[in-house]
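Fold this sequence, please.
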Amino acid sequence: MSDLEAPLRPKRKKIWVDYFVQFRWILVIFVVLPISFTLYFLTYLGDVRSEWKSFKTRQKEHDANVEKVVKRLKQRNPSKDGLVCTARKPWIAVGMRNVDYKRARHFEVDLSAFRNVLNIDKERMVARVEPLVNMGQITRVTVPMNLALAVVAELDDLTVGGLINGYGIEGSSHKYGLFSDTVVAFEIVLADGSLVRATKDNEYSDLFYAIPWSQGTLGLLVAAEIKLIPIKEYMKLTYKPVVGTLKDIAQAYADSFAPRDGDQDNDEKVPDFVETMIYSPTRAVCMTGRYASKEEAKKKGNKINSVGWWYKTWFYQHAETALKKGLFVEYIPTREYYHRHTRCLYWEGKLILPFADQWWFRFLFGWLMPPKVSLLKATQGEAIRNYYHEMHVIQDILVPLYKVGDALEWVDREMEIYPLWLCPHKLYKLPVKTMVYPEAGFELQRRQGDTQDAQMFTDVGVYYAPGPVLRGEVFDGADAVRRLENWMIENHCFQPQYAVSELNEKSFWRMFDAGLYEHCRKKYGAVGTFMSVYYKSKKGRKTEKEVREAEQAHLETAYAEVDQPAD
C-alpha cells in the first residue's frame, strides 16, 4: 500500500515504554547475546556428549526417565493437586504466546532429560527421538549421513515436541505435509501413568490422529518416530524476482511449485523446496530448491554460497538482491540451507537490533547471533510484553492456496506488514476429522496444487511491526488480530497456537474441529488432569477453578450434542 493510499490515522503519543523498546538493544547487546551464546555453547556440548553415548545407553537412560515420569504422575492427588504441566519455565517456550496457564496452581512433571536422539534406523528410514531434541541437533546427526527429517523447521531451537504438539512447517511441506504428518509413531504417557505407542493402524489410532495441534493436553510425549528421507550435500537454489500486484505475486508463487496440469506428484516438475518472500505490495522473490551432489555443486562456473557463516548477509536480504540483478542460481550446503533464517530470526532481528544487519556488526559480533527467543521474553517485563502485543504482529495464516492472493491483500490493507513469508504445505484428507482439515469436496474442484488425498495450503507468515506503528500512528494490535482471526474463520484458515490469539472459546472451536480431540480427552482420562487446548492457548492469566469449570461446561454441552440419537 503506497503512502498516498494509506489510511489517515492520528499520530500516537509516545509513552515511557516506547523509549524502553527503542533502546532495548543495549540490554540485548550486553546481557541477552552473551548469555544466549553461552547457553547455545553449553547445549552444544551436551548434545555432543549425548552423541558419544551408544544408542543402547541412550535407550537405557530413556527407559529410566520414562519410569520417573510414570511414578510422578501416579503421585498426583487429583483432589488436592493442580492440573498437570511440564516443569519447563514459562519463558523458555520459543513461541510468542505467553505461557500464562502456568501461573495457575499446577502439578509439575519434569521432562528436561528427554533431549536425546535414540536411534537412526536406516532400514526403516525412521529417526526415533525424544521431545526436546531440536532441529539444530537432529540435522547435525543426520545430514552427515545424507539423511534428514522429511520436514526440518528452519530455526535451530525449535523442538520435536513443540513441532508435533503445536505446528511445524518447512519449504518441503508441499511434498510431505506439516511436521506432524511425517511422524510414524508417538510414545505417550497418559493421565493414569500408562505408556502407550500410538500409530495410524494400531489400537491407539484415534490418539495418533488427535495428538497434532493438541498442545500436550492429551498426554505427555516422551518419544516419536519420524520419517527420514535421503538427501544430497547441497541445495541448488533458484531465485526468481516477481514484480506485479499481490494477486500476480500469489499466482507466480503458486506456479513455482504447482504445475497447472495438476501433475503435483511428479518430482520432475515439483521442486524439493519452496518459499517466497514478499518485500512490498509489488515486489517479491520466489525461491525453489533441488538437492544437488557435491560433484555438481563444484563444477566449474557454479557458485557456492555458504550462508551459515556469521558474517554473511542475512538470508532475506541476500534473496532480495534478485530484484536488482534478476534471476540467479547458487548452491548452498544443505544443513546451512535448512537453518538459513536462524541467525536473523527471519527479519525480526532487524527490530531487535536495528544495526545487526550492517557489515561491521556481522563481522565483529555476528557470531553471537541470534539472541535466544526465550531470553528475550524473560527480559522484557509485563509492560514491554503488552506493548509488543499491541504494536507488533507475529502470526501465521494457514490459508488454502487459491485464497493466498486474498490473504495478501487483507494483510496489506489492514496491517501493512512487509516482508511476508509464503510457504506451501499439504493438508491431508485423513480417515478421521482432526483439529485442522481440508475443505469439504476439495478433491472435486481440481484446483492448482491439490491432489486426491491433500489440499494445498500456504503459510502466510506475518512477522514485523505494522506500517502505522513504524510511521508513529495509532494502531490497535489486538483489534487487528481479532479481525484477522474472523477473516480466517470465514475463509477456512487456521492459526498456529504459538501465536497470541484473541479468540474466545466459541470462535476457537469454529476455527478448529473439536470432535476427535474431545473424544480422546474423555477416553484417555485427560479431562481433569491436563488443561484443555483452548485454555492452554488462551491469552491472559487463568485460574485452575476457571479452567475446570469452563471445561466441564463445554464438555457437557459437547457430549449432549454428540450423544443425541440420529434421526
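The chain has 24 helices and 15 strands. The two ends are 53 Å apart (CA to CA).
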